[in-house]
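anyone else get weird line breaks when pasting these?? whatever heres mine. first is seq + tokens for prot A
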Amino acid sequence: MTDSRVSGFKQRLAQGEPMIGTWVKTPSPVVCEVLCRTELDALALDAEHSPFGRLELDGCLAVSRLADMPTLVRVPSASPADLLNALDCGATGVVVPHVTTTQQAEAVATACHFGRGGRGFAGSTRAAEFGGKKMPDHLADSRQQTIVVAQIEDVEAVDAIDEIAAVEGIDCLFVGRIDLTVALGAESPNSPEVIEAVATVCAAGKRAGRPVGMFVADTAEAPRWIEAGASLFLLGSDQGFLTAGANELVGAFHTPRSS
């Protein structure tokens, strides 16, 4: 693949360049096509919490690749089958929920890459240009471009964060702040114990030279976490944009007009 947004995304991530993407909750290639026309750095298809079947995922990734939009897939689970499906369909990388141990992180990294005990090879996939890419080229591109993101959203993961951050093949730690809030029994994502856990993940990322990503509900928080070492922000969602836009329209319509 020639130089492109997709092929250069892993390098940008590794360099800690602040980037912003958004979640796609609606399994529609049209939604992805619209968002690909924006200046977002990436999309993240939420196949964990939204009704993405294999065909819907395939269609969304087809549109994103044609538009050269880096696209991650938050897979339903860490199973090799879910990881393989997303990557074969053409995902730039995967976000793996509930990574809690070093052993699990190692297994995920292995399953996402070609090699002994790892990802099964097929030359007929979109990732391999439907047979148009030679095996050595596909292997090299996958090695250089595939992104593996471990989502940190459990107390056990925070406790083992230095070990997880050190795992070869994990490209980014992504803080699942809402799940962390629930796991910690905190009142809100802004509770002191949650903020401390997020800071712990950022500090571990810095020590290991591992990029850190996160979701924040308020963009005003971003500078603070960039200073702490975070760089990949997946904010908002297509559903949120629709809701906010509709409510803004209704509000504008009903705003009293001067005579």
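and prot B, same format (seq, then tokens)
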Amino acid sequence: MMAPILEELKTQYKGILEVVFIDVWQNTNEASKYGIRSIPTQIFYDPNNKELFRHEGFYGKEEILSKWKQLGFDF
């Protein structure tokens, strides 16, 4: 359910917002590296790669954009 939302964000905000999808079933090392305990997990980073927010479970497009706005990034 998240894949189409992430793809839409990736296209709509190209050059503004970097959206990276990691298939943790195929990249188990990445799951460990990022501390993924549940699928899906969304992790928001600032431009300096500092983690700002983490959410486990489904997260809709409007919720994602609203969270970025709360964090001070209004796209």
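btw re prot B: The chain has three helices and two strands. The beta strands are 41-45, 51-56.
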